[in-house]
Design brief:
single chain; Rossmann fold; NAD; binds nicotinamide-adenine-dinucleotide; 14 helices; glutamate dehydrogenase (NAD+) activity; 13 strands; alpha/beta
Amino acid sequence: MATFDNIISRLADIKAIENLSDKEIALLSAPKRVKYAELDVDGKKYPAWRILFNDALGAGKGGIRFHPDVCEDEVKSLSFWMAVKNSLAGLPYGGAKGGVKFDPKTTDKATMEKISRAYIDEFYTVLGQDVDIPAPDVYTNAQIMGWMLDEFEKKVGHHEPGMITGKPIELGGSILRGDATARGGYMVIKEMSQTILGTNQGLKVSIQGFGNAGLNIAAMLAADGFKITAVSDSKGGVYNEAGLDIAQLVAVKTRGGAVQELESAQKITNEELLELPVDIMVLAALENQITVANASRVQARCIVELANGPIDYAADKVLFEKKIMVVPDILANSGGVIVSYFEWCQNRTGNIVDNDYLSELLVKKMKSAWQEVYNKYQEKNGQADLRLAAYIIALNRILAAEKYRGQI
Ligand code: NAD
């Protein structure tokens, strides 16, 4: 099933639970603006998108992905998820996303810079601190945000650091951004495990994906007494019932290696990792990893989605039947965009805010978001899983804004 079809199916479920009208569902089912361009770099064409899904709550906000599989369906889905994620977090943002279809792993730095600048040349008229604000996503980073900011400011003729977040610190970025997604996910795991599993000590955890999100959350959990028994990256996984040495794994990845280079651990496949009996499985790689093909074999007691969209619609139903609790992406990985919001506020006001204060604020926001979603889940009394509970809160907020705007 294409990714956006999953969203349409979930909207149908929410329509039934919340008694929404056809008009409301139509508004939530289609993006407000889809822009496509072919970036021309050194005579080669690169398909590129910027999609604004909804901006009733504020300017669009969402990252830019560089990946060979980027397509309109994916960017549209990611822009929808940003709209619900930003709404759930209570941020003054709509949802947007961008992408360029190419393989950054086989592209040299000079070409990466040209592609980044060409992206802005094509899309700068629909970007800006009060219009639509990009950030990093898969295979984009602070340096790319720096090139994009520079190109944008050349185009518009003034400084506007709030037009993009996840920038280098020297260009107005936040020191907290690097591990913010993992930190937010870690806070949610602490709250969730206490509420659902009755403890947050000594629990067994598996982690799919060992990049920015997966590696950082592994380090935080291991330091806090969780036992990480399995991790994987795109080349395969490793397993140790007694707990993996996370510091060694981080060292392997930092020098550019793969997790299977870790000695003293059993090699497993990615498929095997997804079916291990653990207390918590963290999904921190890509979309559509748990589908009907493997959902029935999942043995984790809880799943936390740090990646966007790692579980498809049909698999959600299987996991719900199996009473496996899924903490949805729009809650679990919202730490990144919350810190982006702090960065944007500082860029706009010129104020320098104490980072310890912002760290505390992130923790508070994550805890209250978890509590709000869990309360809604309980209120729905078996009608909705945590994902639908989170969507209900977020979509009702967007619909309320649309109503005040007179759109419905
Ligand atoms: P990343 O590129 O740093 O890491 C991705 C990791 O997944 C790598 O270790 C890669 O080897 C691994 N991987 C790829 N395919 C795999 C497979 N089939 N099985 C196992 N591992 C596989 O990316 P990231 O920034 O860590 O993002 C990961 C996910 O989290 C994405 O879905 C992204 O959209 C989401 N996310 C990230 C952030 C953030 O701030 N980094 C914020 C929100 C959401």
